[in-house]
Amino acid sequence: MATTQSEIGELEIADELIAERRAEAPGQTPEDMAPWMRPWVAAIDIVNLWAGRIICLLMIPLILAIVFEVVSRNAFAILTQNGMNDVAVAWGLGPTLWVYDVSRMIGGVLFMGAAGYALMRGVHIRADFLYRTWSSKTQATVDAVLYLILYIPAMLFFTWVSAEYWWKAFSVGETAADSTWAPILWPARLAMPVGAFLLLIQGIPELFRALHQMGPQRARGFVRLLPLYLAALAAITASVFFPDAVPFDEWAEAAFAGGPDVSKPTIGLWMLGAMLFAIFVGFPISFTLIFLGFVFGTWGASFKLATFLMTLQTNSVMLSDQLVAVPLFIFMGIVMEQAGLMERLFQAVQMMMSRTRGALYVAVLFVSTIFAAATGIVGASVTILGIMAARTMNKSGYDVRLAAGTITAGGTLGILIPPSIMLIVMGPVLEVPVTDLFRAAILPGVMLAGLYLLYALGRCWLNPSLGPILPPEEQPVTSRFYLLEMILVFAALIVFVWLIGRGISQGFGFPMGAVVVPLAWVGIMYAAYTWTNRARPGGFFFSDLWYEFFMGLVPPTVLIAFALGSILAGWATPAEASACGAFGAVLLSVLYRKFTIPGLYDALIKSLEITVLIMFLVAASNFFGAVFSNLGTPKMLTELLLAIDLSPVLVLILIMALIFLLGWPLEWVPIVLIIVPILVPTVLSLDLGFEDTNDLLVWFAILVAVNLQTAWLSPPVALSAYFLKGVVPEWDLKDIYLGMMQFMVIQLIGLILIFTFPQIALWLPEYLSR
Questions:
Q1: Containing domain of residue 291, as a range?
Q2: Please, how many CA atoms are within 13 Å of residue 156, restricted to the half-sphere of its CB?
Q3: DSSP string of 474-534?
Q4: Residue 249 above 70 pLDDT?
Q5: Would you call 184 helix, strand, or coil by DSSP?
Q6: Within this chain, do residues 254 and 356 fall inside the same structural domain, yes or no?
Q7: Is the pLDDT of residue 385 over 80?
């Protein structure tokens, strides 16, 4: 296979949420940009560049601190259980007081302090469904207007009120009330005004770039209006924060006197409409939500309440112990991809199934399922699978449509199979444990992968030309007992997986048995492999492909099994499991001789970008949602829906249809963070036969996840098609679409099964919680 790891590394495989990553170097300015603009653009870009470079390094102490807590706590438990409590105490082992607080504070600083860097790199998410169709001058004009109207006022208010929030914590020496250690909070809260200020000043280069892009004629009109704009902005700011000096509120009240009396829920509807309009215009969603939260919160209640909700929600996200897992699981997936494990495993499975029709479909789906459990990043899976599989599929005469559908469908499994980033984010939104969502997602994920496989192999069985057997010259050298080879290898792997599961759930009756016994079995397998290849009894030996298969499958599987198994068994929180998984991924890259300092830094900075993209939107949408809920609009919408003469099941079907349709133009992040919270009150009010509210919300979360996974395969907006087209340009987009739509139907069948039989999602959580 001609594909090299360097080809994969050159791609931005983690950008499925990023509308337009900036191509030019930070601080680089076009030579024809106005001379007075260029120094400002360069200086501010460099400031935020170094902010991102420094802040991404905080991920290292974050990982080390959490790993230390896990090792210390479990070592203490093992020694105590074996009568060595005094030794454990003397060594200073045991649960720590400080790691919980330090880890969540670092997690908050990561996304808040680097928000300006993310804007400078162009990674804040925007819904560019309409935006991408406009000319560059139109895009620049819209951006400039919205930066002036939305962004700068919102970031100015955000900076001011967050600075006041920090100053209050600093002046009174406020401590964390929800922890035993009770650390002072102002050092972590300082990231809020600093990050907001870095965002505010980064708006200047963004505005100047927009002015340059729209052309000198339009730009001159904007520049002439800037003095008036600054004067108006100063007057509004002064009236907001110094109302006695500038009575803007009185002027506004007098201006609108005698107007229609608008109820709070109706204001919320206006707020929702403004949000949808602004999102589809294409401006970065986070900043739009912050601005609308301030405006409509002030209109419906008061500016004081709006600022309180903003600081409260942002601080809540910054100190969330569950969301700390987001950057660490992302980092784990990127490091594992850099180690080349996915490519190695694909080639081994391809060779292993070389005598089977549709072997490459099997290889794609097998590898995509494993990789989905390593990272929740769809773009990574689709892109790398396209690079690895497409050339071989073309060469072997595989059907383009079925091949494209298999690659894109397999890539979307990362949305659902734990450790899904979407499920980690959805847990706090629905106020259910992430552990329950992980448990509930496993069987649906495996079921969908199985349905994909049955469909692909069934098509090949009916029409062998869709997936021919690989040519003899490309098949591996094996013994005459190839079937026996396969049976023995898979039997040994089944025993290995069972030993891991047994170790996690019950142990083996002695310290570290959960680790020692599976490793001992690996030693036995390796010894048997070595002896048979040397002695060749009766002409039997194991092909070299099994070694490649083992080395590509077992290390990442062990890492994923222990990371997820510790969560599912209740041994570790998602944050602890993600830190151990990230640490293990680095060790694997060292063992595979793929570790480099530049590679580590690249993984850190990419993880930071995606983290900021998700987490800043979490904070902004929480603020928007808090204002929206305060206005009472969700309650009004719920009452309206329930007033319609429809059965609860039909109402839920309508909700699923709405989410499916929104999944075309929008990514999962705004849907999960903005739309789902609006729909939750309605779902909770439906009589769907659930005695436990937690079960209802867990089932609803899995339905949403599978629904959004389906939307990834729904033309014309499905980004999976563009990822695949980007790495396989010889495939026609029409064929890719037609291939995706086949698997979209299978996905809908899976969604219907989960909808009809909730126990598909709920059985495993109930079983593991006994």
A1: 38-318
A2: 17
A3: GSPP--TTHHHHHHHHHHHHHHHHHHHHHHHHT--SSTTHHHHHHHHHHHHHHHHHHHHHH
A4: no
A5: strand
A6: no
A7: no
